[in-house]
Amino acid sequence: MSLKLEGVVKKYKDFVAVKDLNFTINEGEIFGLIGQNGAGKTTTFRMILDLQQPTAGTITFQNKPMKKVNRDILGYLPEERGIFPKMKVEEQLYFFGKIRGMKRADIKKEIDFWIHRFDLEDKRNEKAETLSKGNQQKLQLIASFIHKPKFLILDEPFSGLDPVNRDLLKDAILHLKNEGMTILFSSHQMDNVEELCDHLCILKRGVSLFSGSLLDLKKQYGKIKLTLRSDKEKSFFEKMAGVVDVKEEKEELVLTLSDESFAKNIFHEVSKGNFIEKFSLDYLSLDEIFKDKVMKDDE
Questions:
Q1: Fewer CB within a 10 Å sphere, N or C end of the chain?
Q2: Do 3-218 and 223-282 agree at the fold level?
Q3: Which distant-in-sequence residues (6+ apart) come within 8 Å of 153 by Cβ?
Q4: What mean pLDDT do residues 208-227 have?
Q5: Domain ranges of the chain
Q6: How many C-beta atoms lie closer than 10 Å to residue 289's C-beta?
């Protein structure tokens, strides 16, 4: 066990930012904390890092209260970025390594590795303020984990990155996991969470709607996403029992069912002397589940 939250509450006078939050992050895993803006994600991160105190409940890391945890084994990329604009890239990374107690030779080794991996070789001696937004983001990312923390928190790490740099970051996160690092991150991009996370917690207005494995979350909904390609029109399926929604995606129709049991009758009806090229039943994506579970009531 790495990190455990039990009954965590955070109040600001009469406003409850986080209510009775419980989850466990196991050592060496990637855990996603997702929710809309104002859901309580950043507040939770700050309590984990002991930057704010919970109103109630406990937070422990490796069975120790956060107050007794050595700060140098933690890493944090805040959503509000904070680099030194006038300081050069390499100089800045040496500074962050030094304040974490690293030896200069060890800092150099990490700088060389990550600058090469993030394609910043020609930016070593440039001031941070001259970098593109994406390269500034990569600089701050390196600064957050240059000291090889045991536990790393990344608050919206993909924000502002183009698809190429998002892939670079995904590869970096998986590399850190393979090195034994435990990672907690938030993202509004559900495909990133679905691709990277072992487990997740969904927050809405400070309340946990779900905490557990992604597969368990999908199983709660069942296999209700039906993708098919046939000679039947959209209107044919819209009138069928159990069909909640029908969307056209390229040359396919994607049906959302109220229950997977309706798929058998749909197959029976559509196959009566008709052409069927594809008939595939699957779980909803995390993005679809998130919209149903979190955003539906707000629309």
A1: C
A2: no
A3: 45, 48, 49, 74, 75, 76, 77, 183, 184, 185
A4: 95
A5: 3-218, 223-282
A6: 20
Report d(CA 140, CA 82) in Å as an integer: 7
Give the tens place of pLDDT for each residue, 7-56: 999 999 999 999 999 999 999 999 999 999 999 999 999 999 999 999 99
Give the mean model confidence (pLDDT) for residues 178-203.
Answer: 94
Q: In 10 A of CB 86, how many CB atoms?
A: 9
Q: Which helix (H) or strand (E) holds 214?
A: helix 214-221
229: DSSP letter: E
* Secondary-structure class of domain 3-218 per CATH: alpha beta
The residue with tokens 């939250």 is: 5
Tokens of 72: 């140098």
SS (H, E, C) 105-171: HHHHHHHHHHHHHCCCHHHCCCEHHHCCHHHHHHHHHHHHHCCCCCEEEEECCCCCCCHHHHHHHHH
Tell me whether strands 151-155 and 182-186 are parallel, antiparallel or unpaired: parallel
pLDDT of 275 above 90: no
pLDDT score for 296:
72
